Amino acid sequence: MSISPQHTIRVSAPGKLMLLGEHAVVYRRPCLATAMDARLHLTLSLAEPDDGRFTIFAPDVGVDGSQGRIAEAFAGGHALAPGTRFIESALAVFYERTGIAHELTITTHSDFPSTHGLGSSSATVAAMLYGLSRLFDLNLDPDELFSLGLDAVRRVQQLGSGFDLATAIYGGTLFYDNARPRQILPLNTPTLPLVVAYSGIKADTPTIVQQVAQRLESWPDTINGIFDVMAHMVKDARCALEDGDWARLGELMDIQHGLLHALGVDTQATARLVFAARAAGAYGAKLSGAGGGDCVIALAPEDRRDAIEAALVEAGGEIIRIAPHAPGVRVEDSESRP
Ligand code: MEV
Q: Does one domain contain both 60 and 154?
């Protein structure tokens, strides 16, 4: 394998927000998600001497120069540190696919905290695989990046629909249908008038997904019925979204929040925020993502935005200023050898 002349490449991938369909999407139903303009930045540098090692600097998650061998990255499902799991699993997948084990230094930095459920793991995997593919001149297409990325994510956590990875790779706003065959459809939408607030509670997505799996096992007809209703709503919501009909989309968000409550993933903190946003005039509001904490989203009429933000803060939320529909994984810049 010939190494391209590129020596250092800087890439970035967006975080995500789930608009509608969370949990149901794990069970092969569709969802709607948008990429947000808070990004995970990753620098890959070819290092010398070439002893087939990698060195990771990820200060946001307390990793300061952890070292390992590329051929042994994430071997047996073990990483050097919790903060390096997704970087290492992406390295392992890339090495198996290409056999490339050139000495590398990897540095990450995120615009958003990994605690807010905004998709830092999938953005890391997308940025790693895209960066590696560009550094070594392979130019993998988005579909191939997605299937390698899903493999990398699944090595770390088994349950997961992959919508966040699709959002990190493709960007924009997506209709993601997790049926067989899987469908990833970029949507043309007017700018969503979103307000995002963090509840102050960090949720552990795999644990919450597991709790829903248990509820599904206890009540298969009921919970599958809820998932089917959600799937229906995603299709209606897609039309509302493409038409920019925020009143209808808001109503569907309210209904969806009720269904998420029925799945057992709402909390006092998220419920308080949702009710506060609605009382302040939102078109609609819901928790976004796995639940159990993390973020709430609201759709705000322009003349109510300030009042909604103030109500969310008053109810204990922290406003996160991010714009939806951000570009997918991309090269920021690169340098060649002198
Ligand atoms: C978490 O952001 C969304 C879930 O649907 C899990 C997933 O889709 O992987 C709960």
A: yes
